[in-house]
Amino acid sequence: MTKKQKKVRNRIIIVLIMFASLMILEKTGVLDPIPWYGQFVIFLVPYIIIGYDVIKKACINISHGQVFDENFLMMIATFGAFGIGEYSEALAVMLFYQVGELFQSVAVSKSRQSISDLMSIAPESANIVREDGSVEEVDPEEVSVGDTILVRAGEKIPVDGTVLEGESFVDTAALTGESVPRRVATGDDVISGCVNGEGILKLRAIKAYEDSTVAKILELVENASNKKSRMENFITRFARYYTPVVTIGAVLLAVLPPLLGQLAFSDSIRRACIFLIVSCPCALVISVPLGFFGGIGASSKKGVLVKGSNFLEAAALIDTVVFDKTGTITKGEFKVSEIIPSGQSSFSEDELLTLAAAGEAFSNHPIARSIIQCYQERNGGAAPDTSLIDQAQTKEIAGNGLSTVYNGKELLLGNSRLIDVPASIGLLDESAGTVIYIGYDGSYAGAIVIADTIKGGVKEAISSLYDIGVKRAVMLTGDNKDIAQHVADQVGINDVKAGLLPADKVSAVEKMLNEEDNNKRLAFVGDGINDAPVLMRADVGIAMGSLGSDAAIEAADIVIMDDDLRKISSVVRIARKTVRIVKENIVFALAVKLIILVLGALGLTTMWLAVFGDVGVAVIAILNSMRALNDK
Q1: For residue 408, is it left (φ>0), alpha (ψ between -120 and 50) or beta?
Q2: Which of 117, 203, 293, 549 is most buried, judging by how many CB atoms fall within 10 Å of its CB?
């Protein structure tokens, strides 16, 4: 609890003891000999102790022209109860109203805590290493691009940077929700907000603080509450008109029956007070945004940043999910997936890889780098031996591959147009990836298959989407149809659109949006770098944050702070649960209030039931909203 909450709690305890004592005295007849004005003062003291802040707020709001709110309703209702001699009821209404308000305040604080945990990623200082070797502690905002930063064990990384010296494990839990630390070494990029677990790291700042990941995330979290859902906007508009209407209704209920000779003034005022107490809209005004806040908090615990309750509400209606391939389903990293000797030559897999690595050693092509990387992984990090390569006779053959001389014999690396593959062996199926055929000394030696690796957990992610009721999963890619279909078959996607340019992806999504039912939504999942136009066009743009990609954070509505696609189904499930809880609160609160309002107007209920209609309903609705925080 905060200091303010503790003060309110202490006031409630004191007044609750006083109220219980007064009720005992009243029921045993001890207060009967005391004249009305004496009883008025006795009950007024605890009433002022517990309700002075409500009366103060009501008066301040009235002076600012904001008359109709819950403070005004409580003030008028309790003043009316005092006016007709219902002192204990007046005190009870204010006491239990404050109990409800405290409960609401604690609930909101708990809901905010899950998002506050994300806010705690903000670094408090940065250690700049000066040219003379000294270290100066400065505010993170004073760090410039190119500065050398020292990060000790246990300290937060202040700005995005590249590791110059050192090796460590960094804790990314605040950003990604993952408890497993990430290993970083010289040359690796690190993002602000992560905690250095051990050792000392020296970084070169690659972004100023205001442009760094942590600053962008904090800005988005702070602005998330401004983007309200349709249900929140409805409740806001509803309360704006509802409160004045019930206030006018209460006045008419207090005045008209006595004027028409049907009721005494004391009875009509009692009914009007009950009407005012029940009509307080705090159960709706608080529980609805609290439910969405809880849903956003539950998502943040999983390392998923939802930019507003409107996007959470839209996520609950998703029934089509469209995926970009490269960088989203696959890693966008070419790796050797197979080494296939011809069977008609004496080369082993390792010897074939040695030939290819030596031939590609002087190329910067991504496929060449993947072959060299595979060689190094198999040979303890050693570079390929190029001493047998005649570099002067090495030449690129545009669109086909390269030729060189290895150990005095011709070496060819390329496609089937460059190397003559025997018909008895046959060409490999290129749907598995890019095939590099190898010819040596005039004969076919074998082939190496280079493929873009699929991210871990993608198949489970697609399966879980189908399990929660998503009807359609689509993959868009610029790759050829064979490779795209091969990837789709591996992950369980049955709808593939291949050979697309970035503009074609927008058109494809536009077409699918036109096919969507009005009550359903389409989500696009991309890596946020080259998919920004599609992310913005979809009903819900979900970006793979890649630990804080700028384009992802800017363009998307929902950002998954690591690249785990399995979290999409979690967010959809959280969104559906949140919307269901909010709808339950709206129906429950309106139904109970309407029943008690009608009974109160007819004189068939008491002020105690009115207290339940306000405080009790609010507490139940808030408890229900708190369920949105918990996702199991």
Answers
A1: left
A2: 203
User: Rounded to whole angstroms, how far apart are CA atoms 52 and 42?
Assistant: 16
> Do the Cβ atoms of 255 and 268 come closer than 8 Å?
yes
Question: Can you give the residue range of the structural domain that contains 174?
Answer: 126-155+160-206
Count structural domains, the chain. Answer: 4
Q: What does each C-alpha distance from 80 to 227, 252, 276, 281, 579 come to in angstroms?
A: 39, 14, 10, 19, 38
Closest to 86 (Cα-Cα) out of 610, 499, 576, 618: 610
Burial (CB < 10 A; 0-12, 13-18, 19+), residue 265, is middle
Q: How is residue 128 written in tokens?
A: 């700049």
Residue 85 and residue 95 share a domain: yes
Whether the Cβ atoms of residue 497 and residue 509 lie closer than 8 Å to each other: no
Options 69, 147, 160, 324, the catalytic residue: 324
| DSSP symbol at 346 | S
Within a domain: residue 41?
A: yes
Q: Pairing state of beta strands 443-454 and 330-341?
A: antiparallel
CB 555 within 8 A of CB 536: yes
Interatomic CA distance for residues 273 and 89, integer angstroms:
10
The pLDDT tens digits of the residues spanning 134-146 come to 999 999 888 999 9
pLDDT at 548 over 60: no
The reply to whether 211 falls in a domain is: no
How does residue 492 score in pLDDT terms, banded at 50, 70 and 90? very high
Q: How far is CA 398 from CA 216, 364, 403, 415, 479, in A?
A: 44, 14, 11, 11, 20
- 8 and 79 both lie in a single domain: yes
In this structure, are residues 126 and 136 in contact, taking their beta carbons and an 8 Å threshold?
no
Pairing of strands 330-341, 135-138: unpaired
pLDDT 10s digits, 76-132: 888 888 888 888 888 988 888 888 888 777 776 766 665 556 556 678 889 999 988
Residue 375 has pLDDT above 90, yes or no: yes
| Alpha carbon separation from 301 to 112, 218, 395, 560, 583 (Å, rounded) | 12, 15, 54, 11, 23
Task: Tell me the C-alpha distance between 432 and 482, whole Å.
Answer: 8
How, if at all, do strands 443-454 and 434-440 pair? Answer: antiparallel
pLDDT at 581: 93
Task: Give dist(CA 102, CA 337) in Å, integer.
Answer: 61
Instruction: Please report, for the domain that includes residue 343, its CATH number.
Output: 3.40.1110.10
Q: Which of 551, 563, 575 is nearest to 631 (CA)?
A: 575
Residue 268 above 80 pLDDT?
Answer: yes
The pTM for the full model equals 0.73
Residue 324 is a catalytic residue? yes
